[in-house]
Amino acid sequence: MSRTLLIGGFAVVALAAAAGVATARPPIEPAPQAAPNAPVSRTDFVERRVQPLAAADADGDGTVTREERLARAMVVRQERAGARFERLDTDNDGKLSREEFVAMAERGAARPRPEHARRNHGPRGERGPVRIADVRARADQAFTRLDTDSDGFLSVEERRAGRERGRERMQQRLAAREASPQAPASE
To answer: What sign for the dihedral angle of Cα 141, 142, 145, 147?
Structure first.
C-alpha cells in the first residue's frame, strides 16, 4: 500500500512540475499590426504567420502537434467567449439581462456571417505536426514573390495584386477538380 502511495505521490509531483514548466514559458506577444494602408515589412509579414503557431507550441520544440493545435484553439475560443461576454454585459454586473440579450440578438441579426466563415475547410485536425521553421520559410518565400518592386516592403497595391492572383489560382484549382472525373471509391 505504501508503495502505491509513493508512486502516486511521484506522479502528482511529476504532473505539477510539468504544469509548472508549461506555464513558466513567457506569454507570446501578438505580432505587431500595421495600419491597413501602411507598407508591411518582411519581418512583420513573416511574424504574423508564425506568431499563432509559436503561441500553440506549448513545449517550445519548434513543432506544433495536433494536440497543441487543439489545446490552443480551446484557449482562443475561451478568450473570445470571455471578450464577447464583456462586450455584451453593458452594465458590468457579471450577468446578461434580458435587455442585454435582446440587444445582442438584434445586433447579431443585422450582421450576417461573412461568406468565408461559412466554408467547410475539411478535417483540419487530420494534419500532422507543423514545423514552425517550414512555415517561416514559406512565408519568407511568399513575401519575396509578392514584393514585386523588391523594396523590402509590401504596398497596398502589392498585397491586393497578391490576393487577386491567389483567388485566380484557387478558381483554377477548383475548376480543374470539377472537370476531372472522380474515381470510384472501390478502385
So the answer is: negative
Higher-scoring residue by pLDDT: 121, 171: 171
64 membership: H or E segment, kind and range = strand 63-64
pTM of the model: 0.60
> How are beta strands 63-64 and 130-131 bridged, if at all?
antiparallel
Q: Is the dihedral of CA 170, 171, 172, 173 positive or negative?
A: positive
Amino acid identity at 128: G
Q: Are residues 107 and 57 in the same domain?
A: no
Domain count across the chain = 2
pLDDT of residue 120: 47
Q: Based on the number of CB atoms within 10 Å of its own CB, is 65 exposed (0-12), middle (13-18) or buried (19 or more)? A: middle
64-78, 105-119, 125-139, range with the lowest pLDDT: 105-119
Q: Is residue 117 part of a domain?
A: no
Tell me the C-alpha distance between 92 and 83, whole Å.
12
Instruction: Specify the range with the lowest mean pLDDT, choosing from 67-81, 82-96, 171-185.
Output: 171-185
